[in-house]
């Protein structure tokens, strides 16, 4: 499935950029990821996400939030926190997370 870039978000808003290195299909990862996608969608102020992974296991997910309160609600979600702990112990070789405030945003889409 091809995912379109997120567009049309009115700044300011916040991003959480999660970059990770992990094997292609670790046990239990897909199920947990599906549950987390559903949970983050119910966080007030969550605006969407984009995600990509290379065949070598490098992945980048960018999640968009209206404000820091929404981002903190996700960061402190108990299921999300448990998944992060499990990921460090079992799935990821390495990861980084960068939080940023978007002050300008634009896009293009061919008709």
TrEMBL record:
Pfam families: ABM. Residues 17-83 form the ABM domain. It comes from Streptomyces roseolus. Keywords: Monooxygenase, Oxidoreductase. Its EC number is 1.14.-.-. SUPFAM superfamilies: Dimeric alpha+beta barrel (SSF54909). This is Antibiotic biosynthesis monooxygenase. It comes from the Bacteria. One of its GO terms (molecular function) is monooxygenase activity. It is an enzyme of class 1 (oxidoreductase).
